[in-house]
Amino acid sequence: xxxxxxxxxxxxxxxxxxxxxxxxxxxxxxxxxxxxxxxxxxxxxxxxxxxxxxxxxxxxxxxxxxxxxxxxxxxxxxxxxxxxxxxxxxxxxxxxxxxxxxxxxxxxxxxxxxxxxxxxxxxxxxxxxxxxxxxxxxxxxxxxxxxxxxxxxxxxxxxxxxxxxxxxxxxxxxxxxxxxxxxxxxxxxxxxxxxxxxxxxxxxxxxxxxxxxxxxxxxxxxxxxxxxxxxxxxxxxxxxxxxxxxxxxxxxxxxxxxxxxxxxxxxxxxxxxxxxxxxxxxxxxxxxxxxxxxxxxxxxxxxxxxxxxxxxxxxxxxxxxxxxxxxxxxxxxxxxxxxxxxxxxxxxxxxxxxxxxxxxxxxxx
Length: 365
Prior knowledge:
Layout: H1 10-28, E1 36-40, H2 67-80, E2 87-91, H3 101-111, E3 114-119, H4 126-134, E4 137-143, H5 148-154, H6 160-174, E5 179-186, H7 194-204, E6 208-213, H8 230-243, E7 250-253, E8 280-283, E9 288-290, E10 304-305, H9 311-317, H10 320-323, H11 338-341, E11 349-350, E12 355-356
Parallel strand pairs: 1-2, 1-8, 2-3, 3-4, 4-5, 5-6, 6-7
Antiparallel strand pairs: 8-9, 9-10, 11-12
């Protein structure tokens, strides 16, 4: 039984989901609203995570954007979009590996951007935490994928857990950030550690824990033994629902996947809607323009390149593949829940077989 955090019955949820589906189809897809712009500063990383969707690590970056090109991009975005409704999300790889990181982000602050970052935090010392604060970072999501031994194994980086937790502590001690969040990828080898992780993170002083399942993308496709069984997936969801508002640290599920009428709103704030190409876009390290960075990098999913195209023109005139209802095919064709999931998350959609690689029908409802 899933804990009823929302205090809503299924009928009310269905009504809300009907409204959201109508809004998606009649308003949002014809008139997309850019709320989150991801800047992939690098695909280099000092860790080599077993699940990485982008296959980051020690990568030879060909055609990487320069410092000046990033500044030009920021100038362009400020000119073309209202910044009060836009979040700049800095990611990688590990963003702090770029030697010009603070120069780029200081410029973003100067222009008035609100920005946050995803990081493994292993490079964050008290001095770096202070610079992040001074440079205007408001939020950060830090990856912690198990207790020390499991985390280090999963990230293939000895000592990573201790460095990461030290980085989190440095930011908590610095203070002044709006949101310091831990994100955990749940897989077959760490699901039994969730309870102890909850206790540890709470004691450190973290107040937000985002729990997500490992996905069959990137390196994880080569290690299917890490994927969750149906029973483990249900166990993860039940854990999140039970702990969501249990104490001072809020626990929530990530944005991916339609969870069915019983679970929707019980493990996160709102109902499922894949934001790719309607609320969210990204500029990759080489200038390619796409939607969510977790989506497979196929030629037809790259919408342009910032060196050749103005981002606003691409946002307004491309991204059709993310804004059209073409995924109602195969096993989705006659599914009554398609109205709500629209084929589920784009990052786990199989563009070769035209069906979702992840569907929770039969698992959660």
